[in-house]
Amino acid sequence: MKISKRLTAIASLVKPGSVLGDIGTDHALLPVYLVKNQICPRVIATDVAPEPLKRGEQLVRSHNLVGRISMRLGYGLKPLRPGEVDTVVIAGLGGKTMVDILSASPEIVRGLNRLILQPMVAGEVVRKWLVTNGWKIAEEELVKEDNHIYEIILAEPGHQEPLHPLQLELGPVLMAKKHPLLVELTENRLAEVRGILESLYRSKTREARQKEEQFRERAKELEEVLEWLSRASK
C-alpha cells in the first residue's frame, strides 16, 4: 500500500509495537498502512466528521482489518479511554487546534509515551505547549510535497530546556541538525514577515508602528539564521 511522503515520514516515527490513536484520521490511510506493515498491532482512528469516517471504514473493511482498526466518531481524544493507546498522531490540523485537543483531554495525554504532531500552521504554538506541559522534543522532520514543506514533531515525556523564540518557530532539533529543508522553510517564513511589514508600512496607525518594530526584529533574526545556515553549508 502506497501512502504520501508526509504520511510515510509520520509512520517512520511510530515505534514498532505501539498501540496508536490516529486523531482526525480522515480516510484511515495511516492506520491501514501501520497495521498492514506490522508496525502497530492495533490502531484506534477517530474523526469528528461522519463522512470521512465512513470512507475510512470502507478502506479498513477492504483490507480485512476490522478487528485491528477501530473507527470512532468524536472530537479529538474524547473517543479514547485512558490507557487505551500509548502513542497519538495528530496530523493536518492547525497548531492551535492541536493544543486545544491535547488540553481538553489531560487524562488521556498523561498515559501516552509519544506524541507525533504535524501542524499545518503555528508549529511554534505546539512546541510552546509541549515545553510547558512536561514534554521534550525528541525528533523533528521536514517533508516537501506538492510545493509545501510539512513540519513533523515527535515528543516524549520529559524535561525540555527553555527554547528561544526562533527555536519555537523553526524547531530546536531541525536547527541543531541543520535539516536540508530548513533554508527553504526559513526563506518562506521571512517572505511572510516581509509581506506583513509591507502592509504595516502602508498603515498610519500607532499600533501599526509598534507592530512594525516587532516584525522588523523578527525579519532580522530570520536573516541571521539564513546567514548561519549558509556558513554551515560551506
Automatic annotation (TrEMBL):
InterPro entries (UniProt xref): SAM-dependent_MTases_sf, TrmK
Keyword terms of this UniProt record: Coiled coil
Any one GO molecular-function label of the UniProt entry: tRNA (adenine(22)-N1)-methyltransferase activity
Pfam family, one: Methyltransf_18
The keyword Coiled coil belongs to this UniProt entry's keyword annotation: yes
Keyword Transmembrane helix belongs to the record: no
PANTHER family: TRNA (ADENINE(22)-N(1))-METHYLTRANSFERASE (PTHR38451:SF1)
UniProt protein name: SAM-dependent methyltransferase
Native source organism of the sequence: Calderihabitans maritimus
